[in-house]
Amino acid sequence: MRIPLDFAWIEAVMLASVRMTAFVVIAPPFSSRAVPARVKAMLAIGLAIAVSPNVTADWVSPGNAEFFGALLAELATGAVLGFLVYVVFAAVQSAGGLLDLFGGFQLALGFDPQSMVQGAQFARLFHMAALALIVSSGAYLVIFSGLFRSFDAIPLASGVDAASSAEAVMHAVTGMFVAAAQIAGPLIVVLFLADVGLGLLTRVAPALNAFALGFPLKILLTLALAGTVFVALPAVVDALAGEAVDLMRKAG
Known about the structure:
Elements: H1 7-26, H2 37-50, H3 52-55, H4 64-103, E1 110-112, E2 117-119, H5 121-136, H6 139-153, H7 162-204, H8 214-251
Antiparallel strand pairs: 1-2
């Protein structure tokens, strides 16, 4: 009994799975350590098989040296695309870090080995909230659709364009800081006005030592008004998913 094997199809799916694996290992939400490595590997292979009709049609089997070069190119492509998505969604965690900094929680800085996040309470809380919203809102499906379309912009073994990738990374990093400031901006303004009010009160009545109340007052304001920031997170995650797809398209 002979079972014919299409080696060109196997090579194309293998290359696609390398790009998918590099992407899944870096990009949220599946980059978390809470997701086992076997699940990540099976997910990457499943996504590669799903996209196989698009990548195997025009694939021509190369030589051994060219195939290993194609493996490295696909690994770099998946890593770049995953990093772009990671940077975009890091804006939510950065917004939590800003709240920790201005609200007085930065003294409780810690490292979470499960999510590989270093920050205080709001940084870790916003990170977990972003991951939960990505899964519950279906934003990960939008990201995967952008990953599938990347095979049209970046064919197998072609690799990413260095100039376009560098421009996309710089745009992603700039957008991360802007988005973080937009998310945490209203509460930061409130905390700044609280400092200004305490400063004016100290000038009027120096004996009151109003700045001694600054630390507990800012913590109270942060805890009381942090819920207003959480209300906007679903819309923020939805917008960030669309921006991540645009950046993956520009990287090609």
